[in-house]
Amino acid sequence: MKRRAFLGTTIGTGAVAAGLAEGQVNATPLSRKATGQDNKLAGKTLAELREEHRYWLFDDFLPFMDKYVIDHDLGGFMTTVDRDGARIDSNKRTWFEGRGIWVYSYLYNKIKQDPKYLEAAQKSADFIMKQNPLGKELMPVGFTREGKPLENTPDPIFYGDVFVANGFQELSKIKGHEKYWDMAKQILLKCVDIYDNRPGYGDLPPKPGFDAKVRSEVKTPAENQPGVERPRVMGHWMVLLNCAQQMLETRTDPEVEIIAKRSVEAIVDYHYNPEYGLINEYVNHDLSRIKTDNYGQACIGHGPETLWMVLYEAVRTKDKALFDRTAGYLQRSADVFWDDVYGGMFIGIDNVEQNIWQVNPKAEWVQVEFLIGMLCVIEHTGAQWAKDWYGKLHAYVMEKLPLKQYGFPLWICYADRKVTFEKHYNRCEHFHHPRYLMQNMLALDRIIKRGGKTSGIFGA
After folding, report:
1. What is the structure's pLDDT at 7?
2. Cα–Cα distance between 372 and 420 in angstroms, integer?
3. How many CA atoms lie within 13 A of 453 on its CB side?
4. For position 18, what pLDDT does the model report?
């Protein structure tokens, strides 16, 4: 579907690109104003906002997981459940095992050292270790409850394996579990090798659209649209960076440092498109820009999601120039992705030049990933644009997503453009949702501890 033109009519794309390259958007510099503990963010005091996050994590999400999703007997996470927890099937997906290990390890490490959180992470790790994650091939997409592969072939993309690596590295931070760091590194290096060197990995077919669920409306005949061989994928750099940067929290390693650095450079120097100030999902294998409309003009929510990870990396490395530049990209993305009619962030753009948008579905993960990035900018710079956007998006999220208003736990994961409630659904979102709640709760804790002042990480 086409929506309003967003490139602007008062300044050319060259001017837009020049401004964004310096981290400046709409000529608004990042300020150094403190948030102020007595000031309000999203219409709430910082303490009230922190309590809101605590409620949705501890009183809503975790009890549901404990009762309906965690396999306390065999280990792992059975996420295919209805709104009321009724189990649809008991299968376990590799993606979701890795994500679950990370969530419960992070919960134990950073939020509350409750033995039952460690038990959930450990049992899932034990379950997935039986599936040979350290082997040369990628793991299958999923398994039965007992651990039998649902398919006898490896997953064609490496997300599941990298999520397992990410779960392992977080588990390794718990005393007595240090061995999982080395396992995480072994898996990560395997995935990078496949990404770099395996013939045919991730080839994009010569047809419009970029996956089975999100189809492009480009009307060009498929036979006139060449495919893309072994593309570089925004979502791939995203998970590689997120895993590597968290591994480097506890151990210095030159090979992991290289992965983090490569990922950041690919994101901000190659996937970022200065012509229109957004991040393309795909580039060619050599990082050159795809010239055809097919795939070359796609910008989806992975771009804005990854920007908070680059912001976190800039904080870790104390790189102010990278932080300011990335914050500018995040502001630009918010300005563009916002649905002016019904509110909320669109999940992506199929074709920038033809102005073809993915208006369905509206996804929770896109909304909350923006909120993580905006709060990061607020914490470290106090930028007013980030406060304004945080308040606007937070209001939308709290109005539309919590299922409590319909008599159910959790939040709406995917819905139509208007976020129309449907009584039945087939999945518990157990990664983006708790990650947002935990990371932003921790950020709020730090801001409150400083009396509302910015971090000062980049100087006064």
Report:
1. 35
2. 25
3. 8
4. 35
Q: How far, in Å, CA of 172 to CA of 167, rounded? A: 9
Q: Note whether 453 and 46 are within 8 A (CB).
A: no
> What is the predicted pLDDT for the residue at 1?
53
Q: Encode the chain in three state secondary structure.
A: CECCCCCCCCCCHHHHHHHHHCCCECCECCCCCCCCCCCEECCEEHHHHHHHHHHHHHHHHHHHHHHHHECCCCCCECCCECCCCCECCCCEEHHHHHHHHHHHHHHHHHHCCCHHHHHHHHHHHHHHHCCCCCCCCCCCCEECCCCCECCCCCCCCCHHHHHHHHHHHHHCCCCCCCHHHHHHHHHHHHHHHHHHHCCCCCCECCCCCCCCCCCCCCCCCHHHCCCECCCEEHHHHHHHHHHHHHHCCCCCCHHHHHHHHHHHHHHHHHHEECCCCEECCEECCCCCCCCCHHHHCCEECHHHHHHHHHHHHHHHHCCHHHHHHHHHHHHHHHHHHECCCCCCECCEEEECCCCEEECCCEEHHHHHHHHHHHHHHHHHHCCHHHHHHHHHHHHHHHHHCEHHHHCCCCECCEECCCCCCCCCCCCCCCCHHHHHHHHHHHHHHHHHHCCCCCCCCCCC
How many angstroms separate the CA atoms of 98 and 168, rounded? 8
pLDDT of res. 192: 98
Q: What is the pLDDT of residue 395?
A: 98
d(CA 241, CA 262): 8
Stretches where the chain sits below pLDDT 70 are 1-38, 207-225, 460
Query: What is the rounded distance in angstroms from the CA atom of residue 236 to the CA atom of residue 340?
Result: 30
pLDDT at site 422: 98
